[in-house]
Amino acid sequence: MTRVLIVDDEIYAVKGLVSGVRWDSIGVEGVFEAYHAAMAKEVLRREEIDIMICDIEMPEASGLELMEWAAEQCLPIETIVLTCHSEFAYAQKALQLGGNDYLLKPVIYSDLERVLEKTIRKVREKRKASELGDLYLQYAELWNSRKPLLIERFWEDLLERRFRPDRESIDAALAGCDISYKDIERIRLVLISLEQWEKPLTEREEEIMEYALRKAAEELLPILPSGHVFRDRRGHTIAVVPVGDDERLGLSALCKSYIEACRRYFYGRVSCYVGEPVAIEEAIRSYLSLQNAEYRNVSRMNAVIELGEEPLDAEFPSSSQPSMLELADLLEQGKRAELMAALEEKLGQEALSVEALTAMYHSLLQVVYYALHRKGFSAALLYENESWLDAKQAAKSVGRFRSWAEKVVEAADRLLSAQASSSPVVQKVKAIVAERLNEELTREELAAGVFLNPAYLSRLFRKETGMALTEYILQEKMRRASDLLATTERSVSEIAGELGYGNFSYFARQFRKVYGETPHDYRKLLKRAK
């Protein structure tokens, strides 16, 4: 017999499934209930559950997060995913890539019964293998379920410099991933940049759709056993494609198909930045070059952009070479000691000339300026209350250059660290939003106002504020609406119009999302409280 757990924050939806599905006739002996992810985890720890019926959209922790937790715990459960969004039809196929079935809410009981019967057969097949004592199959299945996580960790560790990018270290890191060095000896990296949603989405909906975008990338791009699609700590979606597969399958054409699928099915505009073929030991430089290309691109959107093409910005300084980008990345991450160690390696070369030191002087300044500019800081801030050596003075000796470099790097690091939570870019975006609350602002318009790529701005804003840009705009508009409801006698329609909402019903729905009440009821509550 089979045991089922139903997880949904709508209690009546759970009760409806419990009473409406013919559990006995399809072979279910136990049905358990949970009304949020934390409660579901308690049940899963306590009971032996075979099948979990789980809603995607839940407060605090989504159904996807619960599924990821179950996978990390190696729980042998099958999952049936529920959602109320009909526009997720294409996401159905993406979610099924992980072996999950998918149903739209409100659930038709007969449809759920059919899906349950199929899932129960799958559960019974696994039990049969277990009863036969085939321990190897059990461990093989567990390994296969965890293998993608191990591969993803390998690529993250490589691109974040958690081990040295040499053959010996890479071989050691691959030992636990069941991947041969020869399979990934040469690769292409693809940075998938989400530029704009073409319809309003809440922050939770954005997270779910971004997950579906990554799953669709795994399907549409040539991601074979040695490749992978993952999200890095900076919020980029990165695809790793072994060289050979890219040419055989036509990587550029597949990227175009993926971009079109995202627009048609996910209401999202994306661009694909395609790196040049590199040895795996050079993956870090390719990775940083892709980030740099996205950061500088403010003119080409919804496109495939190959780094082998003409530069996006011909006036960008020579410091855009990967070695300089690596130094800038170390500075941005606050890894001052590693940056100075890299400089020291260059200074340790024999027979350094005045010309070489002068070139290093200008290169280091470009690194510092670049890192500051990415965070929205003016290079002029470096020179406040400071007197620096010029190139001629700093290049007189290695010792003098080293002293100058240490002070410059320390000053830049101090500036980035002290103002990490309030960069000028984010401050300016907030000011633009405040000034234009009566308009329907888009990410593209805000990005143009601060001269940044929309995708880069979205990630920077989310990282510094913990909030999606669209969610911030909504909250600011509704906060202004709340103030007007509390301090004026203006009609709700007038307030909606002032904030740029031509549709009163839509304004009321948005207000209720933020405050949990309609504008009329909210005003009544305020008056009662006086």
UniProtKB/TrEMBL annotation:
GO terms for biological process: phosphorelay signal transduction system. Keywords: DNA-binding, Phosphoprotein, Transcription, Transcription regulation. It holds the Pfam family Response_reg. InterPro entries: CheY-like_superfamily, Homeodomain-like_sf, HTH_AraC, Sig_transdc_resp-reg_receiver, Tscrpt_reg_AraC-type_HTH. Residues 427-525 form the HTH araC/xylS-type domain. Gene3D superfamilies: 3.40.50.2300, Homeodomain-like (1.10.10.60). The keyword Amino-acid biosynthesis does not apply. The modification 4-aspartylphosphate is found at D55. GO terms for molecular function: DNA-binding transcription factor activity; sequence-specific DNA binding. Residues 3-120 form the Response regulatory domain. This is Helix-turn-helix domain-containing protein. It comes from Cohnella thailandensis.
